[in-house]
Write a structure and sequence with these properties.
The complex is a heterodimer of chains A (380) and B (226). Chain A has 380 residues and is mainly alpha-helical. Chain A has 16 helices and no strands. Chain B has helices spanning 2-29, 33-53, 57-82, 95-115, 127-132, 160-171, 173-203, 208-225; strands at residues 133-141, 149-157. In chain B, a hairpin with a 7-residue loop joins strand 1 and strand 2 (149-157). The chains are: A mainly alpha (380), B mainly alpha (226).
């Protein structure tokens, strides 16, 4: 076989397929993990009937959805209604070709010099499915869901992008591999960029329409929002795209702020050169570290969902425009000042202090609450 | 194999260019505004591919990020908010259309004359080298005297994002800032106009959402009659 064909077509395709299958397995696992974890947090059981501990729920659900009737509402826009669930799948899947899973070159599918920007560009088109699906259903609730999603996406795209700028300023590259290589010789970026990391996490929740920000499908107001009229596999595709995008964003936060496939800082620990020294096993280990970190963030997503009540829409907009964007701009300014002063190491200590203060503040003994609730607790 | 790989960019250009032109015609030909917006989206994506073909990955990425990810979403948002399902049927070849075609042809001739090599920019003997490398000056400490800085000059591979950033913040700084000022002015104008209508509506006794609906309907009627 032609060598160029092998290096530029066959190998990338094989690597992409492997990454793709791993990601889809995570999606299947998440359908079970999320509900079990939600159940655990809410002091109930969750699905535990299909197979041992309900493990086969991830198979039972797709089968059920496959067998369901595929409904097309009368006077729905047929093509747009069909495209709705399909469109968000394309960006959600394509992005996995751009994310480095392990030490390069063996565990990266492609390397683009504007990689991060390209990922942002591709993921920003994922919203069309929701907007189109909501509009094509010819249902007021669906349309409202689609409109909310459009407004929310456009608003949170800005802090999402701005929070990355700080990382780009200290690493000096848009190439994800370069960003990870920087973090293993210095500290992981969440230390010097703690504020950016926080903004990124909040915005990625908003971008994914996850629970504190799930207004496009707020079931107490909009029935089921943009997917009210969808059933069967089309509904499943919406869910598949949502969970794939969650994994994309977890991959991004791990790569940008938590050292990607490496496990170590300041050149100590499992860095790329150490992993490369271990040969193929090292590569697998790097990929395992990467996906372990991604899983941690998937669980944080669930934890976040179980913890916070849904925002009102104006609160959501206020948070985005009045808090997140100024905070992100301020972060860029402060980062610029530190770089200008040549005091980048000082940012680590500030980040550490901020982290410590947050943990201390959240971990302190709560003051006794006033009102009915507190009196009931004290009686009991 | 070589013949295939060397003619690949041309093939991609022909296919994507055709789609871009066809979908941009459909933008104006479609009677449903949402369909028009979707074809505009397709045009933007195709143009991004054409940018990649000219090895301008940065511009391509920004094109998709800003136009496809931001502006088109807002377009769709507005179109869906005023919920115009179908524009009235119109004859395709009205005199106005002929005028439009005339203006389009004139623009085409203008662009073709300007962009032709040798007119607007000088013909570069080694055009490909100019595109892929960038001249860079950088400062280092002098080896003998640490207090002295020496300016070096080197040619290295052009990284797209850097090239755009350097151009924007050095040679084209003033036009860039003027453009951003324009945007700021436009934004303030939009807020002022929006706020004024809001305060006029507050004087009425009817609930806001009804007034808004009346206003949107008025706007739709105006848009339809225009």
């Amino acid at each position: 076989m032609n060598k160029a064909l092998l290096t530029y077509l066959v190998w990338p395709l094989v690597k992409f397929l492997i990454a793709f299958i791993i990601v889809q397995l995570i999606v299947v696992a998440m359908t079970w993990i999320e509900r079990r974890l939600l159940g655990f947090i809410q002091a109930r059981l969750g699905p535990n009937r299909v197979g041992p501990w309900g493990l086969l729920q991830g198979i039972a659900d797709p089968v059920k959805l496959l067998l369901k009737e595929d409904i097309l509402p009368t006077s729905a826009e047929k093509i747009a209604y069909f495209l709705g669930p399909m469109l968000p799948l394309i960006p959600a899947f394509v992005v996995f070709a751009l994310i480095p899973y392990g030490p390069p070159p063996a565990f990266t599918v492609t390397r683009v010099n504007v990689g991060l920007l390209l990922i942002l560009a591709i993921t920003s088109t994922a919203v069309y499915g929701i907007i189109l699906g909501g509009w094509a259903s010819n249902n007021k609730y669906s349309l409202m869901g689609g409109l909310r999603s459009a407004a929310q996406m456009v608003s949170y795209e800005v802090p999402f992008g701005l929070s990355i700028v700080g990382v780009l300023m200290i690493t000096g590259s848009l190439d994800l591999v370069q960003i990870v290589r920087y973090q293993e010789t210095n500290a992981w970026n969440f230390l010097p960029q703690l504020v950016a990391c926080f903004i990124f996490f909040v915005s990625m929740n908003a971008e994914n329409n996850r629970t504190p920000f799930d207004l496009p499908e707020a079931e107490s107001e909009l029935v089921a929002g943009f997917h009210t009229e969808y059933s069967g596999m089309k509904f499943a595709f919406f869910m598949l795209a949502e969970y794939s995008m969650m994994i994309v964003n977890s991959c991004l936060i791990v790569t940008l702020f938590f050292g990607g496939w490496t496990f170590g800082m300041f050149g100590v620990g499992l860095t790329t050169s150490v992993l490369r020294g271990m040969g193929f096993f090292g590569g697998i280990l790097g990929a395992a570290i990467f996906f372990a970190k991604v899983m941690v963030f998937m669980l944080v997503y669930v934890w976040f969902r179980a913890t916070f009540p849904r925002f009102r829409f104006d609160q959501l907009m206020d948070l985005g425009w009045k808090w997140m964007i100024p905070l992100a701009l301020g972060n860029i300014f402060v980062t610029g000042l530190f770089i200008l002063a040549g005091q980048e190491r000082l940012m680590y200590w500030i980040g550490l202090a901020l982290l410590g203060a947050t943990v201390f503040y959240l971990g302190r003994k709560p003051a006794p609450r006033k009102g009915i609730h507190a009196s009931r607790v004290s009686e009991a | 194999m070589d013949a295939v790989s060397s003619s690949m960019p041309l093939l991609v250009f022909v296919v994507i260019g055709t789609i871009a032109v066809a979908s941009s015609i459909l933008v104006v030909a479609m009677r449903n505004p949402v369909h028009s917006a979707l074809f505009l989206l397709l045009t933007f994506l195709c143009v991004a591919v054409l940018f990649v073909l000219r090895s301008a990955e940065f511009v391509a990425a920004v094109q998709v990020l800003v136009y496809a990810g931001g502006i088109m979403v807002l377009f769709l948002f507005v179109v869906m908010l005023i919920n115009v399902r179908h524009l009235p049927e119109e004859r395709v070849l009205s005199p106005v259309w002929l005028g439009g075609i005339g203006v389009g042809l004139a623009m085409f001739v203008l662009f073709a004359t300007i962009v032709r090599p040798g007119t607007y920019h000088d013909e570069v003997p080694n055009a490909d080298k100019k595109l892929t490398t960038v001249d860079e000056t950088y400062l280092t400490q002098d080896a003998t005297n640490p207090n002295r800085l020496v300016r070096h000059h080197r040619q290295r591979e052009n990284r797209n994002a850097e090239a755009v950033g350097m151009a924007l913040y050095t040679d084209y700084l003033v036009p860039f800032e003027v453009a951003s000022l324009f945007l700021l002015v436009a934004m303030i104008g939009a807020i002022v106009i929006g706020k004024r209508e809001l305060s006029a509506a507050e004087e009425e006794t009817a609930p806001d959402y009804m007034l808004e609906r009346v206003e949107t309907e008025k706007e739709v009627k105006e848009a339809l009659s225009a």
